[in-house]
Structure formats: structure tokens, C-alpha cells
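Long-time lurker. I teach an intro course on protein structure, and each term I like to show students one example going from raw sequence to a predicted 3D structure in C-alpha cell notation. This year I'd like something fresh instead of my usual example. Would anyone be willing to generate the C-alpha cells for the chain below so I can use it in lecture? Attribution to the forum is fine with me.
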Amino acid sequence: MIELGISLYPEQETLEAMENYIKLASSYGFTKIFSSMFSVPGQPEDVKNLFKTLCKIAHNANMEVCVDVNTQMFSVYGAAADDLSVFKEIGVDEIRMDMCYGDERDTILVNNKEHIRVQFSAFMIEVISPPLKKVEDTSKITMCHNFYPQRYTGVSISDFIKINQFWKHENINVSAFITSNSSQAHGPWPVNDGLPTVEIHRYQPISFQVREMIAAGVNTIYFGNAFATEAELKEASEAVTMMRINNINNTKLNAMNSSLMAKYGKKVIAFHIIPEANLSEIEKTILFTFDKHIDFGDSNEFMLRSRMPRIAYGKQEIPPRACDKKVFTRGDVLIVNNNLKYYRGELQICRSEMENDGQRNLVGYLNENECRLMDYIDTTSIFKFIS
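-- Reply from a regular --
Happy to contribute to a lecture. Here you go:
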């Protein structure tokens, strides 16, 4: 299950503004709030009361609260690895350890009697892995990536994927941050260049950020900066909805799906396609109604292949359509036409140049960002298209 979240910075925002933002985010299906306790100035009792109020507002909106903490503030608030009662009193659902202990105290922390979930920094694999191996119930743990206010300092996409794969192998969920592109959005410091985890997401469309996060194995996606606009909240929510799979009314296909979908469909990739004009109704159906495209793992450097629409629509006419391109290029989306009837209806995505031999209709293309999503497709994936 994919969950969406927002971030709040109480030292910079009024309680009224935060409450309005929480209610707005909740209306678009957001269920998580990330905030920081140790960055809020003031006496401990005043800070506690502020977060008690914030947690009450969040819970009334059916949202959970995770607060950023560290071992130094534990002593200020009377907390310890074996005593998280202060956070229970406040109403916190989850704490994120800005720095872990790096020893058996992390195991004790996770197994707290207050039943508060614990987040650790995802990149600290060597430090946090040993104590977490002693935790039997990994649902108590989330690995959370950092966010990066300074341009050019965010995580590389290759390292991001490697870290996520490690924690997925350990059966531990991962959370990370996307960034609002609003010029008014801010983080904890006076820097306004966005607040993503992955550097190449800075300034990118919200839908793409969300869809790549999901493709890369993230379970909880927070907006790092505040406040995201209503349009951005809506776009993020719609991007998650895009990953849902519908039932196709085709007996033969559904019979196959009953056995296949247990293996395929563990990950859904949604491509934003720029469609060609004058598509036939059957081409539109294959592109936008059929959403169980599967590459069985035997594709090559030329294309990704989706054979499944052949089963559903291969007997329908797909007349060849004129195309000025003599060579198809990376990102072109093709459907096999009547000139190759045995494979008619098969959908293909170009990975490298292919001669246009008249057997395939060009139905649209993917831009550079969308092409990168092809790299996430493996033998557990299904993919679909959105316009």
C-alpha cells in the first residue's frame, strides 16, 4: 500500500495554517504528517503542548504523525531507549531517529512498550543493520531517506534504488520525500530550492516524482516542503490512483490472470504518454483501457514487449497507418498492425532504433523522464499508460 504525507514546520507556521493544510491534505487521501520536535524552540512543556494539539488535529483528520527526534533531546524530554512514554503522552504515532544509537539500544527502542513505530535513516545501512536483525516484527520499523534543501546535493537515483532494494530484501518499508514546486514552499531552513530526496526530482512535475518513487519501491511519500499547493496535492493523489489495476472483461485473459497476477503485479509502472492524433478505437483501448501490460523478462535492447493485449484484442482489425518516421527511436510506443497478423495487438516500447517496416503503428511517445521509468520494469512488474 502506498501512503502520501505532508511535512510541517511549527516554528514557522501558525496553528491555524497547519490545521487548514492538514484538512486539505486529508481530503485528497493523505494519511501521514512529518514534523520535527528538536528544531522547535521553547521550553519542553510548551513544545509538548504544541505537538499535543498538532497530533489531536491530525488524528481528527485521520492522519498519523511522525516527529523527527535525536538522542540529545531524549534527555531534555525525559525519554530513553526503553522509555518513550513522553511521545505516547503527546500522541505521536512514530518517531524518526535523526541519528541512531548504533548498538543494542536501537533494538530496545524498536521493541518499545508504548507501541510507537520507529524510523531510521535509510542510508546508514552498516550502522543500523546489526541491531535491527534482532527485531522479529519488521512492521515496527521504517527506513526514511533524508531531504536535501541545497541544490545538487540530493541522492543519486542509482544509490536511491540500491538502498531501497537492500531494505526491501530485509522486509522493511521505505519512506522518502518529493518536493513542491511552489515558490512559497519552505523547509526548516531559509532555502527555497525545493526539498526532495532524489536530486533529479528537483523542479520535476509532481506526478512524475510520485510515480518514480513508487517504481523505486517507496511505501510512504512525503512532500518535504510546506505548503504544497492544492493542485499539487491533487496531482500526487491522482498519481497514486493511476497505479491501480482494473478488471478487463475478457474471459480468456482473466483465466490467465488468475495464475499470472500472483507473480506479476507486485509493482505497477504508469507511463505518461503523448499520444498520436487520430488513433483508432482499438488502439485507444489497448493504450488506455488495458492496464495489465507485462514484459515477461525476455525482451532485448530494441524493445519492451507486452504480449497480453494480443490475447484480448488480436482478432480485431488494426489497419496500418502512415508514419513519416523511417526509424523508430527510444520512447516510441508501437502497436503491431494487420501486416503481422499473428502478433496483431501486441504493444511495444522502443528502447533503441528500429526500422519502420510497416508492421507497427506509432501510437505515441514517452519523454526523457518517462523513458527512465522503463528501467524499473522487471519480471514482477505490470505497466500501463496515462495521457
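Some talking points for your students: Residues 68 and 163 are 21 Å apart (CA to CA). The two ends are 24 Å apart (CA to CA).
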